[in-house]
Amino acid sequence: MIRHWNTAYSLVSLNDVLHKLHDHVTDSLSLLPYLPKVNSHLDIGSGGGFPGIPIAIYRPLQKIVLNDRSRNKCRFLREVKAHLKLHNVIVVEQDIREPNPAGTRFKSITIRSVARPTQAWLLARSHLHEDGSVFLQTSVELSDVALENGRIDKVFQTERGLITKVGLVN
Question: What pTM does this model have?
Answer without folding.
Answer: 0.89
